[in-house]
Write a structure and sequence with these properties.
552 residues; alpha/beta; Aldehyde Dehydrogenase, Chain A, domain 1; Aldehyde Dehydrogenase, Chain A, domain 2; seven-stranded mixed sheet; 20 strands; globular
Amino acid sequence: MQLSEQQKNSLDKAITAIQDRNFYAHHPEHPGAYGEEAANSGKAAFEQQLNKPFTQLLQTGTTAQAGDETSPYTGQKLGITYPTTTTDTLINNANTAFEQWRKTTPDTRAALLIEALEQIKNRYHEIAHATMHTTGQSFVMSFQASGPHAADRAMETLALAYQELTRFPAQKTWTKPMGKFAIQLQKTFTPIPHGIGLVIGCSTFPTWNSVPGLFADLMTGNTAIVKPHPLAILPIAIFVAEIQQTLQKNGFNPNIVQLAVDTPDQLITKQLAEHPNIRLIDYTGGNTFGDYVESLPNKITFTEKAGVNSVIIDSVRDLREVMRNLAFSVSLYSGQMCTAPQNLFIPEGGITTTDNENIPFETVVDVFKNEVAALVLNPKMGAGTLGAIQNPHTLERAKNAVHLGATVVLSPLDIKDTIFPDSRLISPTILQADATQTDIYQQELFGPIVVIVKTRNTEHSTALAKAMAAKHGAITCAAYTTSNQTAQQITDEMNQVFAPVSLNLTGFIWVNQHAAFSDFHVTGGNPAGNASFTDPNYVNKRFVWVGNRSIA
C-alpha cells in the first residue's frame, strides 16, 4: 500500500511544521466545520451506544464484558460494556499480529494510519459527547481535545516517526578505495521494532494523551495494547475500533491494536505492564503508579506524571488583564489539566507596573479573587469554563482544601449548570500561604485548587518555583514581568530544571495550552515525565537500526 498524493501532502506539511516549529492542523477545530448534520448525528450515535455492549471492536478472544463509566454531568451510568479477555490472550494476539506488521514499510503504515484518522474524523461529534460524559470536559473542549487536537498529535507523531524511519537508505552499495582496487559491500539498513507496546490512558484526556504513544508504536512497527482508565473508555474505544476496521479492510490483522478493558475492582494494568513481552509503555497519570512503571526492568517507558506548575508575578502592564487571563487558566476544566497553574508566587511588597507604580500584595490577591469569582459566577461563562469534576474524590479534595492550614481567600462556590443541574461542579478554592508553608503547596493538588504564595521578592519566587520543579516536576511555568532582564533571569533559572516558561500571556492564549506542532509538552528533564512528543527520541526509542552486509 502506497501513500496517496493527498496523504503524502499532509505528511509533508506535518514534517515541515515539526521542523519549523510552526502551526499545523490536520483537521479544523471548530465543531461547525463538519456540516450541518454532524452535530445531531454525532449526539444520536453517542446516545445509541448507551446501555449496550460496544460491538465495533474486531479483536479476538473475548471472554466477558465489562464497563463502569458514569457521567460527571448527570451522575448516571453510561451502561456501556466492552469485550474483555485475559492478559495472555491479548499478548498472544499481539505477538501473532506483530509478525505481519513488523514487515510492512513505513509508507504502508503511514497510509493506513492516515486513512484511519480520516475515518475517525467522521466521528468527532460522537467522540465529543463520549469525552464530555466520561471526563467532565465541556462540549467544546471535548470536541477539540479528543477530536482534531488529538488527531493533530497523532499526525505529529506519525510524521516524526516517518521522518526517522526513512532517514537512512534501505540499501546501499558501500565502496572503500584500497589503492589499485576497492572493496565493495552490499549493505541493508532496517529499522527493527521492539515488539508490543502498552498505552495506559488517563481519565481526564482519554484520547489526547493516548494517541501519541499509540501512533508512535504503530508507525514504528510495534503492535499496541491500549489500556484506558476504567472511567473513560468510550472515546479511545472509538479510535481503536476505527483503526482496527481500517487494518482489516486493507488485509491486515486487526489485532495489531487491541483495547484492554478492566473495572475499578478488577484491574489488569499491572499484569500487562509486568508481562515480559511488553517492551514499551506509555503512561499518563499520577506519580505513584508512574514511578512504578518507570521502575520496571527491561521496559522502555514514556511517562506524563504530575507536576507542580507555577506562576511568577513580578510586574505587569495591566493588572486586570493579567488576572483575567490567570482566572481563566485556573478555572478551565476545573484545574483538571496537567498544564494548569497551581501556585502563584507574589512578592510580599507587591508588584510594579510599567509606570513604576507599586500595587500592594493585598490588592493583587483581591483582584485575582474578584476575577475568578466574576468568571465562575457569570451565567454565560462559568459552567462552560469549569466543565464538571471527573472524579468524586477530586471534588471532595477541593472542598476539603480549606482545611489545609492556609488562609482561605475564596471558598468553593456551588455553581449551577442550567443544562445539567446534577453535574459535579464547584468554583476553584483559592488559598494564601506563607513561603515557609511548603507542606501545603509543594505537592500537586490536582483540581480546582490555587495557592497564592507570599514571597520575599521575585528572586525568592523564582527560587521556590525552580525548587518545586526540580523536586516534583513541572510541565508549565508562567511569568509576568515588564523587565527584559528579569524575564531572562526567570527563563534561565526555570530552564535549568527543564521547565518551559510562558511570558506575559494575556487575552485568548493561556499557559494551559500546548499546541500541536509547537511544544515538546513534557520536556523529559524533570520528574513530571519524559513524554516529549516532538523530540525524535519519542519515536527513535521504539525501534533499533540493524545493518546487514554482504560482498557485492
